[in-house]
Amino acid sequence: MRLRKFVVLVAVVAALAAGAFVILHRKEADVRRERRDARLLDFDERSVTAVVLTTAGAPWRFERREEGWRLSAPVEDAASDEAIADLMSAVERVAVTRILEDPEALSAYGLDPPVARVQFEGVGATLDIGDSVPTGGGLFARVEGRPGVLVLEATVVSDSTLGRLDPTQFRDPSFVGLTSTSIDAIAARSRAGEVRLEHGGDGWWIVAPRRLPASEDSVARLLQILDHVEIRAFDDHVDPMDPAFGLTPPAFEIEVSSGDTTRRLRLSAEFPEGLRFATRDDRACVMEIATPGLDDPAFSPATLVTRRLSSVNRYRIERFVYRNGDESLAAERSGETWSAEGGATLPSAEIYTFLAGLLETPVTGWRDSSGSPAGAVAEFRYRLDGGQEGSIEFLPGGLGRVSDVPGILFALGGSPPRVP
What we know:
alpha+beta; elongated
């Protein structure tokens, strides 16, 4: 009897355990299904080989190339890597807030035909985007092979390219097509003349029409101007050589280089509303651009030339001799310690303050050194930690001469410093 009761009890416990397992399994399956249903699309972005965006019946094809994304149809053009990455991220992040399992006619939701269709080639995913939900609660959408009409959450839609599927927003919005921090050479030709800038280990230099040290601030301002040129419109089916665009000849020709890559830009004269027409050598279109601050003075050597006497890094100087009138000082650095010629230790902070004041003597202008005055009123000779040597002379009449800028006299806005 007891054995029979025990067997019955074990059977009941086993049945309860099995039932609990089934219920738990069903709950887990329901949770997984709800999570799956809440996702719009789930794919590996790295596997996407092309994105085809169709609006108003016209397909725009963006292909992944080795150098990045590129528009291949209906025209060839540079594409925006950032905008396409934002789109793919948005379709993976956006939540499906509601599923209409028994919808009305698809046309009632803007899905027949869809407002936009996005095909992600390489992962076999197709998304149709319809109208906005009348209550302002996101967008209607459909995924190929998935039943029902989906309602997409409003927040991700409004904060991403998913909510404004205009093909032009996936074109490269950059006028230059190079990041300003990677640019190492700039050349410009206009009716005012020609100028070329190059960046080296010791900063920016004007190398044409003659070699002059460039102002880091002025070059940074020029790069910022180029970086903020706004493309207002693309004209794809026109002849850039049509005189109506004012590009034959252009008012400006600009070359911008980064390593082995060079972008060649042609700009018309400015027309009303501060706009210009422009072309870029790797784009077939004519662009309508807004160019605040982009004018002849921005490329003038007088604007770009240094405003400090020398660009030498004071922390690289390991020995110097300075003479001003009857006073002089010879000093040498060992590690972080400065010593006078006789061996006395010098305050490092005082020496670096002196070097900064001397090297950063303000420059107000420059001219050729022909007929330059003789006899320096003060002279600074130095050696860098790499062994390079140089000198700076302060001349009568508020002029200065720097050894690494031969043939030039600088007009100075300050006097030579006193010997520390």
